[in-house]
Amino acid sequence: MRVLLTAAILMFLLMYPSLASTPVSATIDFHAGVVGSNVLHPGDRKEVTILLSCEVTGGLENLPINENTSAIIPMLTTAKSVVLKPQSSIIRAESGTVVVGDLLCGTARPVNIIVEVDREVYEGRSELSFDVDYSKAVLNFDGQSYKLSFSKQEGRIDVEFEIKKKEYDFEIVSVSSDLTAGAGHSEN
To answer: Rounded to two decimals, what is the model's pTM?
Structure first.
């Protein structure tokens, strides 16, 4: 009986590291806002700068603390190969797909896009939505060592704009003419 109990305990101890290992990866949340005024007018076509950032909202609770922790944290908290894909809306992003690159959580990156607003839009708040494709690092323990892999992720961000009509309702049009002063006028 004692041999059987010892064998069971030994087998459990050998299997424990692989059973206890859970992948460690950060939960990343994206945020975006317009730099400067977020007011657009019907018919506008202009470049706007969006400030894109991300933050870690969890997932690192099981991160092993050792001499390598400070080196691994930046890898786990970076959204790699970030790509923004605009979705259709009354505000259209003419820029199309935007490649942002790597974005370390806690930092912000300006992204310039050209937007066009429908002429027949109503006043009020509107959003330009983007699908966010990125990769993130996953730390796996195989019983003897840690291995780093990457998994593809998807997210979504909404950038809020305010649509307001212009305070004036006219356009300046350039007109040219062939008229000459005093020509065609005769006096009797």
So the answer is: 0.71
